[in-house]
Amino acid sequence: MSFEQPIPGAPPLERVTVMQGQALASASPSIEYSTVLGSCVATCLFDPQTKVGGMNHFLLSEPPANLPGTQVDEHYGVYLMELLVNQMLAKGARKSNLKAHLYGGANVNRNMMRIGTMNAEFAREFLRREGIALMREDLGGTNARRVDFRPASGQVRLRTVEDRFAPPVQPTPRPAVSTGDVELF
Questions:
Q1: Residue of 156 and 181 predicted with greater confidence
Q2: What CATH number has the domain bearing residue 156?
Q3: DSSP letter assigned to residue 165
Q4: pTM over 0.90
C-alpha cells in the first residue's frame, strides 16, 4: 500500500524505529514506525474507528517448554503481543475493532533452526485465538524486510531487503544478574 502525500501545513513526520523487544502504540498522524526484520516478526495493529495503531517486534515466539524457570521477557512474542494490545486499549482502541498485519518470519540462515517459521506460526495462532482479524501477511521466505507503518491511518509500506544489506541476526544479550548491594537515596 502506498503512503499518502504529505498534507500542506501538517506537522512533519517523525520516524520511530521499533527495535527487537519493543511494542509501541500511537494515535498521532505525525508518527511512522519503522523496523527491519529477518526471522523476527512484527505485528502492526490498527483500530480504524479510534485511529489508534501500534507495532511490535519480537525475536522468539515463546520460551522453550523444557527449560524450567525460564522467564518471559521482552524478546518473546507471547509477551510483546499482549503488551501491544494492552497499550492500544489504554489509548482508546477496542479489541473487537482491531485489524492486523504480520511481517517477517524469514528463515534467513539455512543452517539454523526454522525460527522464522515458528515465529510466524505463533503470531497467526495468537491473532486467531484472540479474535483479531488478520488483513494481510508477508511471512516466510529467506529475505529480510523493512516495514514502515503509520499507526493513525493503518497504512503500511513493505520492502524486501537484499541479503547483503540485511543486518546480521543477533539476539540481544540479557543483562548480567547483579549480586551487589543496592543503596537507596
A1: 156
A2: 3.30.1330.200
A3: G
A4: no
Q: What is the pLDDT of residue 60?
A: 81
Cα–Cα distance, 75 to 73 (Å, whole number): 6
Query: How buried is residue 62: exposed, middle or buried, by Cβ count under 10 Å (0-12/13-18/19+)?
Result: middle
Burial of 103 (0-12, 13-18, 19+ CB in 10 A): buried
More confident residue, 38 or 184: 38
Tens of pLDDT, residue by residue over 38-54, are: 999 999 999 999 999 99
- The whole-number average pLDDT for the span 147-151 is 97
- How many domains, in total, are found in the chain? 1
Residue 142: inside a domain = yes
* Integer Cα distance of 131 and 125 in angstroms: 10
Q: Which of 112, 108, 156, 161 is nearest to 136 (CA)?
A: 156
Mean pLDDT over 20-27 rounds to 95
Please give the span between the terminal C-alpha atoms of the chain, in angstroms, as a whole number.
Answer: 52
Amino acid of residue 157: R
| Residue the block writes with cell 474507528 | 49
In a domain, 99, yes or no: yes
User: What is the total residue count of the chain?
Assistant: 185
Q: Which set of grid coordinates corresponds to residue 55?
A: 507495532
